[in-house]
């Protein structure tokens, strides 16, 4: 568990530090296979502590890892707003916390002469060296190195092929939370999370719905479907969330006009901008999760058209965008093309004050 310090966030847009004091309340002991043949990786902190190392081995590794991190200087930051040594040093501690069965024991012995003390580990020492080299030399995202990301009050499994959920997206769950509090129909109804990735939004929303509320989540990526299913099972929500493989509304053909809510954080980066993103994102995160076409609007427009036919009259939608320009584009489009379909269309800012989300309702009279 990582306490007290903000976690790093991969920046698709200006970085926002996320909340830090997540707990990891759930075990992975009873997880059954996901509905794809792909087997998701177990996050480091959930792997069995079957390895061991002496405290002096760990101290040697830590010093080596710090030296490597320090050698980066301001290079990554200057290059593409990447991580600086301060952040990388924090990640070294987080990596150790995830790799050790009992991280507190290490702190107890720090600065003493107990170098022969044996610590139980979830990875071999050799793996720690490899993982940290990947982090620095290949700019592999820290979240892929440890196989998880802290998001709201959850710890979600992630791996290559699945977008690391971002802190700004958490606000969509807060918006839904506020909305369903006073509205039984929305709380007990059927929700959709389109392009679910790790399952973050689907799981966040399912956890705030009432006993009858359910979520269907879709994704075109088989890896995302496998990882989302794993996360759903880890939070024991398999009776509330159904994960479907397929493109946007295509797997939802039999449930048209039945949704009380529809949320999505679709790919919205303009194709040409991807190359200029932080290397952790551009080189390692799936293009399918990022690329929104020439102006980044391809998927947002598609979702907007589909929302009108998928939502029940009065149903709520929330779409995440790249920022103010895309928000305005989408709202203008809705007003021009499908004015009578929607009501209460609004632009909502994220925690950093950037216009980020377009929200609204399906009009009751269409
Ligand atoms: C920006 S990521 C968001 C992931 C997750 N909702 C989150 O917020 O962390 C976009 C997601 O849309 C998925 N996606 C891309 N094209 C899709 C399509 N045609 N149909 C369904 N999902 C798609 C990607 O695989 C990716 O998981």
Automatic annotation (TrEMBL):
InterPro entries: DNA_methylase_N6_adenine_CS (IPR002052), HemK-like (IPR004556), RF_glutamine_MTase_cyano (IPR052663), SAM-dependent_MTases_sf (IPR029063)
GO terms for MF: nucleic acid binding; protein methyltransferase activity
GO biological process, one term: methylation
CDD domains membership: AdoMet_MTases
UniProt keyword list: Methyltransferase, S-adenosyl-L-methionine, Transferase
Pfam family, one: PrmA
PANTHER family reported for this sequence: PTHR47441, RELEASE FACTOR GLUTAMINE METHYLTRANSFERASE
Protein name, per record: Uncharacterized protein
Organism: Rhododendron simsii
